[in-house]
Amino acid sequence: MGDVFDKVTWWGDGSTSGPAVIQPMDTPILAWRGNQNSRNITVANATGPPGQLAGTVLRKTVLADSSPYAPALAGGLLADIHGQMAWVDISAGQRLHVATLEIETRTFTFTGRLAGRTLVSDGVLSGRSAPTLAGSSRAFPQVGVVDQQGNQVVANESSPLVFSALATLSWVGATRGPVRRFSLSDVPGGRFLWAWTASDGFLRFAFTTSPTPSGETPAVVRSAQQSIAQPSVTSYRGGAHVGWTGVDGTGLLNVAALDLGRLGNGADPIASVNILNERGIGAPTLVGMAPTANVRTHRLAIFWAGTDGQGTLNGGIVYRE
Protein backbone atom coordinates (compact mmCIF):
# COMPACT_ATOMS: atom_id res chain seq x y z
CA MET A 1 0.00 0.00 0.00
CA GLY A 2 1.15 3.51 -0.72
CA ASP A 3 1.65 6.27 1.84
CA VAL A 4 0.97 9.97 1.30
CA PHE A 5 3.50 12.50 2.55
CA ASP A 6 3.35 16.17 3.57
CA LYS A 7 0.04 15.13 5.14
CA VAL A 8 -2.24 17.50 7.02
CA THR A 9 -5.31 16.72 9.12
CA TRP A 10 -7.49 19.76 9.74
CA TRP A 11 -8.91 18.76 13.12
CA GLY A 12 -12.29 20.29 13.88
CA ASP A 13 -13.24 20.65 10.22
CA GLY A 14 -15.34 17.82 8.81
CA SER A 15 -17.71 17.00 6.00
CA THR A 16 -19.84 14.20 4.61
CA SER A 17 -17.60 13.99 1.53
CA GLY A 18 -14.19 15.14 0.39
CA PRO A 19 -13.70 18.90 -0.13
CA ALA A 20 -13.57 20.63 -3.49
CA VAL A 21 -10.11 22.14 -4.02
CA ILE A 22 -8.38 24.58 -6.34
CA GLN A 23 -4.71 25.54 -6.20
CA PRO A 24 -4.14 29.09 -7.50
CA MET A 25 -0.61 29.23 -6.08
CA ASP A 26 1.31 27.54 -3.26
CA THR A 27 -1.56 26.66 -0.92
CA PRO A 28 -5.08 25.48 -1.68
CA ILE A 29 -8.53 27.00 -1.49
CA LEU A 30 -11.08 24.47 -0.25
CA ALA A 31 -14.88 24.35 -0.18
CA TRP A 32 -16.99 21.77 1.60
CA ARG A 33 -20.46 21.03 2.84
CA GLY A 34 -20.62 20.77 6.61
CA ASN A 35 -20.70 17.57 8.60
CA GLN A 36 -23.72 15.53 9.69
CA ASN A 37 -24.86 18.41 11.91
CA SER A 38 -24.45 21.26 9.42
CA ARG A 39 -25.29 21.79 5.77
CA ASN A 40 -23.65 25.21 5.43
CA ILE A 41 -20.97 25.61 2.77
CA THR A 42 -17.55 26.71 3.99
CA VAL A 43 -14.78 28.17 1.83
CA ALA A 44 -11.28 28.35 3.29
CA ASN A 45 -7.71 29.33 2.52
CA ALA A 46 -5.06 26.87 3.68
CA THR A 47 -2.44 29.15 5.20
CA GLY A 48 0.93 28.26 6.67
CA PRO A 49 4.38 27.24 5.47
CA PRO A 50 4.68 28.17 1.77
CA GLY A 51 4.53 25.29 -0.65
CA GLN A 52 3.47 22.59 1.77
CA LEU A 53 0.32 21.10 3.29
CA ALA A 54 1.67 19.91 6.65
CA GLY A 55 1.40 22.69 9.21
CA THR A 56 -1.30 24.64 7.39
CA VAL A 57 -4.46 25.90 9.06
CA LEU A 58 -7.78 26.78 7.46
CA ARG A 59 -8.86 30.42 7.41
CA LYS A 60 -12.58 29.89 6.93
CA THR A 61 -15.63 31.74 5.70
CA VAL A 62 -18.91 30.00 6.51
CA LEU A 63 -21.43 31.06 3.88
CA ALA A 64 -25.15 31.54 4.44
CA ASP A 65 -25.72 29.07 1.60
CA SER A 66 -26.36 25.42 2.40
CA SER A 67 -26.42 22.22 0.39
CA PRO A 68 -27.27 18.55 0.85
CA TYR A 69 -24.21 17.70 -1.28
CA ALA A 70 -20.59 18.68 -1.71
CA PRO A 71 -19.92 21.87 -3.73
CA ALA A 72 -17.60 22.05 -6.76
CA LEU A 73 -14.77 24.49 -7.53
CA ALA A 74 -12.99 25.58 -10.70
CA GLY A 75 -10.11 28.00 -10.80
CA GLY A 76 -7.42 29.59 -12.94
CA LEU A 77 -9.87 30.71 -15.60
CA LEU A 78 -10.12 33.95 -17.57
CA ALA A 79 -8.54 37.09 -16.16
CA ASP A 80 -11.72 38.42 -14.53
CA ILE A 81 -12.75 35.03 -13.09
CA HIS A 82 -10.23 33.74 -10.59
CA GLY A 83 -12.45 31.02 -9.18
CA GLN A 84 -16.01 29.74 -9.33
CA MET A 85 -18.12 27.52 -7.11
CA ALA A 86 -21.23 25.48 -7.91
CA TRP A 87 -23.67 23.96 -5.45
CA VAL A 88 -27.19 22.57 -5.15
CA ASP A 89 -29.31 24.42 -2.58
CA ILE A 90 -31.59 22.98 0.11
CA SER A 91 -34.83 24.42 -1.26
CA ALA A 92 -37.63 22.07 -2.30
CA GLY A 93 -36.44 22.55 -5.89
CA GLN A 94 -32.77 21.81 -5.04
CA ARG A 95 -31.70 24.46 -7.53
CA LEU A 96 -28.21 24.65 -9.04
CA HIS A 97 -26.17 27.81 -8.33
CA VAL A 98 -22.84 29.10 -9.64
CA ALA A 99 -20.95 31.96 -7.99
CA THR A 100 -17.69 33.80 -8.60
CA LEU A 101 -15.20 33.69 -5.74
CA GLU A 102 -13.49 37.01 -5.12
CA ILE A 103 -9.80 36.10 -5.00
CA GLU A 104 -7.11 38.59 -4.06
CA THR A 105 -4.81 38.62 -7.07
CA ARG A 106 -1.60 39.39 -5.16
CA THR A 107 -1.86 36.58 -2.62
CA PHE A 108 -4.31 34.38 -4.55
CA THR A 109 -6.47 33.98 -1.45
CA PHE A 110 -10.24 34.02 -1.12
CA THR A 111 -11.43 37.33 0.37
CA GLY A 112 -14.55 35.85 1.95
CA ARG A 113 -16.90 37.39 -0.61
CA LEU A 114 -18.86 36.03 -3.55
CA ALA A 115 -18.43 38.57 -6.33
CA GLY A 116 -21.49 37.42 -8.28
CA ARG A 117 -23.90 34.53 -8.54
CA THR A 118 -26.59 33.03 -10.75
CA LEU A 119 -29.19 30.29 -10.83
CA VAL A 120 -28.43 27.89 -13.69
CA SER A 121 -31.38 27.45 -16.06
CA ASP A 122 -33.29 30.15 -14.13
CA GLY A 123 -33.81 27.77 -11.24
CA VAL A 124 -35.77 25.26 -13.32
CA LEU A 125 -33.10 22.56 -13.02
CA SER A 126 -33.45 20.42 -9.90
CA GLY A 127 -30.28 18.55 -8.95
CA ARG A 128 -30.02 15.38 -6.92
CA SER A 129 -26.24 15.08 -6.77
CA ALA A 130 -23.15 17.10 -6.09
CA PRO A 131 -22.38 19.31 -9.13
CA THR A 132 -19.22 19.44 -11.20
CA LEU A 133 -17.32 22.35 -12.73
CA ALA A 134 -14.91 21.73 -15.61
CA GLY A 135 -12.75 24.35 -17.27
CA SER A 136 -9.26 25.38 -18.31
CA SER A 137 -7.10 28.47 -18.43
CA ARG A 138 -8.45 29.21 -21.92
CA ALA A 139 -12.15 28.55 -21.49
CA PHE A 140 -15.15 29.22 -19.32
CA PRO A 141 -16.35 26.28 -17.26
CA GLN A 142 -19.03 23.74 -17.83
CA VAL A 143 -21.39 22.93 -14.98
CA GLY A 144 -23.04 19.54 -14.62
CA VAL A 145 -25.35 17.69 -12.24
CA VAL A 146 -27.68 14.69 -12.05
CA ASP A 147 -31.29 15.89 -12.33
CA GLN A 148 -34.31 14.46 -10.52
CA GLN A 149 -34.94 12.00 -13.36
CA GLY A 150 -31.41 10.61 -13.02
CA ASN A 151 -30.14 12.27 -16.23
CA GLN A 152 -26.68 13.77 -16.52
CA VAL A 153 -27.19 17.38 -17.65
CA VAL A 154 -24.49 19.95 -18.48
CA ALA A 155 -24.40 23.61 -19.53
CA ASN A 156 -21.47 25.65 -20.85
CA GLU A 157 -20.67 29.13 -19.57
CA SER A 158 -20.70 31.47 -22.57
CA SER A 159 -19.71 34.58 -20.58
CA PRO A 160 -19.31 35.26 -16.86
CA LEU A 161 -22.23 33.61 -15.02
CA VAL A 162 -24.21 33.18 -18.25
CA PHE A 163 -24.94 29.57 -19.13
CA SER A 164 -26.17 27.95 -22.32
CA ALA A 165 -29.20 25.69 -22.56
CA LEU A 166 -28.97 22.38 -20.76
CA ALA A 167 -27.72 19.35 -22.68
CA THR A 168 -28.45 15.77 -21.61
CA LEU A 169 -25.71 13.13 -21.84
CA SER A 170 -28.00 10.21 -22.57
CA TRP A 171 -25.08 7.82 -23.17
CA VAL A 172 -23.85 8.10 -19.57
CA GLY A 173 -26.75 6.19 -17.98
CA ALA A 174 -27.43 5.75 -14.27
CA THR A 175 -24.56 6.74 -12.00
CA ARG A 176 -23.29 7.09 -8.47
CA GLY A 177 -22.83 10.85 -8.66
CA PRO A 178 -22.04 13.26 -11.48
CA VAL A 179 -19.89 12.66 -14.55
CA ARG A 180 -16.47 14.37 -14.66
CA ARG A 181 -15.22 16.10 -17.81
CA PHE A 182 -11.52 16.64 -18.41
CA SER A 183 -10.08 18.63 -21.32
CA LEU A 184 -7.32 16.97 -23.34
CA SER A 185 -5.09 17.87 -26.26
CA ASP A 186 -3.35 15.66 -28.82
CA VAL A 187 -5.05 12.53 -27.51
CA PRO A 188 -6.22 9.73 -29.82
CA GLY A 189 -9.98 9.50 -30.00
CA GLY A 190 -11.01 12.97 -28.87
CA ARG A 191 -10.32 16.18 -27.03
CA PHE A 192 -12.46 15.55 -23.96
CA LEU A 193 -12.30 12.73 -21.42
CA TRP A 194 -15.36 11.79 -19.37
CA ALA A 195 -15.18 9.70 -16.19
CA TRP A 196 -17.93 8.48 -13.90
CA THR A 197 -19.05 5.68 -11.59
CA ALA A 198 -22.00 3.78 -13.01
CA SER A 199 -24.82 2.52 -10.79
CA ASP A 200 -23.13 -0.91 -10.69
CA GLY A 201 -20.09 0.68 -9.05
CA PHE A 202 -17.65 0.20 -11.94
CA LEU A 203 -15.75 3.20 -13.30
CA ARG A 204 -16.59 4.21 -16.87
CA PHE A 205 -14.60 6.32 -19.35
CA ALA A 206 -15.30 7.85 -22.76
CA PHE A 207 -13.81 10.29 -25.28
CA THR A 208 -15.77 12.97 -27.14
CA THR A 209 -14.75 15.62 -29.66
CA SER A 210 -17.14 18.25 -28.25
CA PRO A 211 -17.39 19.64 -24.72
CA THR A 212 -21.18 19.32 -24.97
CA PRO A 213 -21.59 16.18 -27.10
CA SER A 214 -25.36 16.25 -27.55
CA GLY A 215 -25.03 14.78 -31.05
CA GLU A 216 -22.38 12.19 -30.19
CA THR A 217 -22.72 8.63 -28.92
CA PRO A 218 -19.16 7.82 -27.82
CA ALA A 219 -17.82 4.38 -27.07
CA VAL A 220 -18.00 3.80 -23.32
CA VAL A 221 -15.32 1.64 -21.67
CA ARG A 222 -15.97 -0.12 -18.36
CA SER A 223 -12.99 -0.39 -16.03
CA ALA A 224 -12.41 -3.31 -13.70
CA GLN A 225 -12.15 -0.79 -10.83
CA GLN A 226 -15.09 0.02 -8.57
CA SER A 227 -15.98 3.01 -6.40
CA ILE A 228 -18.64 4.01 -3.88
CA ALA A 229 -18.94 7.51 -5.40
CA GLN A 230 -17.88 9.61 -8.38
CA PRO A 231 -14.16 9.67 -9.29
CA SER A 232 -11.90 12.69 -9.48
CA VAL A 233 -9.71 13.39 -12.54
CA THR A 234 -6.76 15.76 -12.82
CA SER A 235 -3.53 16.30 -14.75
CA TYR A 236 -0.12 15.42 -13.36
CA ARG A 237 3.06 15.88 -15.41
CA GLY A 238 0.99 16.06 -18.59
CA GLY A 239 -0.93 12.84 -17.98
CA ALA A 240 -4.45 12.22 -16.68
CA HIS A 241 -4.83 10.61 -13.26
CA VAL A 242 -7.96 9.38 -11.51
CA GLY A 243 -8.74 8.98 -7.82
CA TRP A 244 -11.62 7.18 -6.12
CA THR A 245 -12.84 5.57 -2.91
CA GLY A 246 -12.88 1.80 -3.14
CA VAL A 247 -15.65 -0.66 -2.33
CA ASP A 248 -13.57 -2.75 0.08
CA GLY A 249 -15.80 -1.72 2.99
CA THR A 250 -13.15 0.38 4.74
CA GLY A 251 -12.98 3.32 2.30
CA LEU A 252 -9.46 2.80 0.99
CA LEU A 253 -8.41 5.59 -1.38
CA ASN A 254 -7.10 4.65 -4.83
CA VAL A 255 -5.07 6.58 -7.42
CA ALA A 256 -4.13 5.50 -10.94
CA ALA A 257 -2.61 6.96 -14.09
CA LEU A 258 -4.88 6.64 -17.12
CA ASP A 259 -3.49 5.03 -20.26
CA LEU A 260 -5.41 7.06 -22.82
CA GLY A 261 -3.98 5.05 -25.70
CA ARG A 262 -5.62 1.94 -24.27
CA LEU A 263 -8.86 3.85 -23.81
CA GLY A 264 -8.75 4.95 -27.45
CA ASN A 265 -8.55 1.27 -28.40
CA GLY A 266 -11.52 0.35 -26.23
CA ALA A 267 -9.50 -1.20 -23.39
CA ASP A 268 -9.51 -0.48 -19.66
CA PRO A 269 -7.29 2.61 -19.20
CA ILE A 270 -6.33 1.58 -15.65
CA ALA A 271 -3.50 -0.93 -15.73
CA SER A 272 -2.01 -0.34 -12.27
CA VAL A 273 -3.55 1.02 -9.06
CA ASN A 274 -1.84 2.74 -6.14
CA ILE A 275 -3.96 1.77 -3.13
CA LEU A 276 -3.22 4.36 -0.46
CA ASN A 277 -2.90 3.69 3.22
CA GLU A 278 -5.67 6.23 3.83
CA ARG A 279 -9.43 5.84 4.13
CA GLY A 280 -12.19 8.24 3.24
CA ILE A 281 -15.94 8.69 2.98
CA GLY A 282 -17.62 9.91 -0.17
CA ALA A 283 -15.50 11.10 -3.07
CA PRO A 284 -11.89 12.34 -2.74
CA THR A 285 -10.44 15.17 -4.81
CA LEU A 286 -7.21 14.96 -6.81
CA VAL A 287 -5.29 18.15 -7.62
CA GLY A 288 -2.26 18.41 -9.87
CA MET A 289 0.13 21.06 -8.55
CA ALA A 290 2.57 22.70 -10.92
CA PRO A 291 6.00 23.96 -9.79
CA THR A 292 6.01 27.32 -8.00
CA ALA A 293 8.60 29.68 -6.57
CA ASN A 294 8.53 27.74 -3.30
CA VAL A 295 8.28 24.20 -4.65
CA ARG A 296 10.18 23.37 -7.84
CA THR A 297 8.59 19.94 -8.36
CA HIS A 298 5.33 18.68 -9.82
CA ARG A 299 3.03 17.26 -7.15
CA LEU A 300 -0.14 15.21 -7.19
CA ALA A 301 -2.24 15.91 -4.10
CA ILE A 302 -5.33 14.18 -2.73
CA PHE A 303 -7.90 15.60 -0.32
CA TRP A 304 -10.53 13.58 1.52
CA ALA A 305 -12.93 13.35 4.47
CA GLY A 306 -11.76 10.76 6.97
CA THR A 307 -13.50 7.76 8.46
CA ASP A 308 -13.09 8.93 12.07
CA GLY A 309 -16.84 9.50 12.52
CA GLN A 310 -16.47 13.26 12.09
CA GLY A 311 -15.48 13.31 8.42
CA THR A 312 -12.33 15.22 9.38
CA LEU A 313 -10.69 16.86 6.36
CA ASN A 314 -7.25 15.68 5.24
CA GLY A 315 -4.77 16.39 2.48
CA GLY A 316 -1.52 14.87 1.33
CA ILE A 317 0.86 14.42 -1.58
CA VAL A 318 0.68 11.15 -3.52
CA TYR A 319 3.56 11.77 -5.96
CA ARG A 320 6.28 14.39 -6.29
CA GLU A 321 8.78 14.66 -9.15
UniProtKB/TrEMBL annotation:
Species name: Streptomyces buecherae
Highest rank taxon of the organism: Bacteria
Name of the featured protein: Uncharacterized protein
